Amino acid sequence: MTDEPQNHTFRVATLPARKPQRFRLTPSAKDRATLAKDLDITAIAALTFEGEIRAEGREDYRLDGRLKGTVEQPCVVTLAPVVTKIDAPVRRRYLASYVAPTGEEAEMPEDDTLEPIPEVIDLRDIAAEELALALPDWPRAPGAELGEAVFAAPDAAPLRDADLRPFAGLQALKDKLEKDG
Question: What is the Cα–Cα distance from 47 to 25, expressed in whole angstroms?
Answer without folding.
Answer: 8
